[in-house]
C-alpha cells in the first residue's frame, strides 16, 4: 500500500518506514536530529548499520534515486527502515512496487 505519512521513530529501535514493497522512497527527518536509514529485502529488521545512510535533522532523501541505487549491496532491497538515538519523526512518501 502506498504511504504518504509521518512515521514515529522510537529511540534505539529499527522502525520500518515502508508499509509495502517499493522501489523508491522520499524521507525527511522532521525532528532536528539525525537518523540512520537502512534497506532490507523483506520485512525483517536490519541487524547492522553497516552500509546505512545517515540523514541529518531536517534533511531530505529525495525519491529521484531508486532503493537499488542507494543500497546496491542489498540484493532485492524493497523495504526501508530508520534508527535514531533519540525519538524522532520521519515524513515518508512512497508508491507500491
Helices and strands, with pairings:
Elements: E1 3-9, E2 15-16, E3 25-29, E4 35-40, E5 53-55, E6 60-61, H1 67-70, E7 79-83, E8 88-94
Antiparallel strand pairs: 1-8, 2-7, 3-6, 3-8, 4-5, 4-7
Characteristics:
Jelly Rolls; mainly beta; single chain; four-stranded antiparallel beta sheet; globular; 1 helix; 97 residues
Any overview of this molecule?
The chain is mainly β. The protein has a single domain (3-94), classed as Jelly Rolls, CATH 2.60.120. The protein is built from 1 helix and 8 strands, in the order E-E-E-E-E-E-H-E-E. The protein has one helix at 67-70, and strands at residues 3-9, 15-16, 25-29, 35-40, 53-55, 60-61, 79-83, 88-94.
Quick take:
By secondary structure, this protein is mainly beta. Helices cover 4% and strands 38% of the residues.
The major pleated sheet works out as: 4 strands, antiparallel
Q: What's the rounded overall pLDDT mean?
A: 96
What percent strand?
A: 35-45%
Helix content: under 10%
Enumerate how many helices there are, as a single number: 1
